[in-house]
Amino acid sequence: MAYFDHNATTPLSAAAREAWLEASWYNPSSPYRAAARARNALEQARQELAHILQADPEDIVFTSGASEANNAIFRHFARHHGAEARVAISSIEHPCVLDAAQAWFEGRVDALKVGAQGHVSVPEVRTYFQNHPRPVLLSCMAGNNETGVEQPWPILLDLAQKQGVPFHCDAAQWIGKRSFDRLGMCDLLTGSGHKFGGPKGVGFLKLSPALRGLKVQFGGAQENDHRGGTEATASILAMVAALKERVAALEAAKVDALAQSRDRMIERVRAELDVTVVGEETPRFWNTVMLLLPRHCSARWVAQLDRRGFEVSSGSACATGKPGVSHVLTAMGVERSQAECAIRISGGLETTEENWQALAEAIIASWHELEQERSRDSMVIEI
Question: What is the DSSP letter of 226?
Answer without folding.
Answer: T
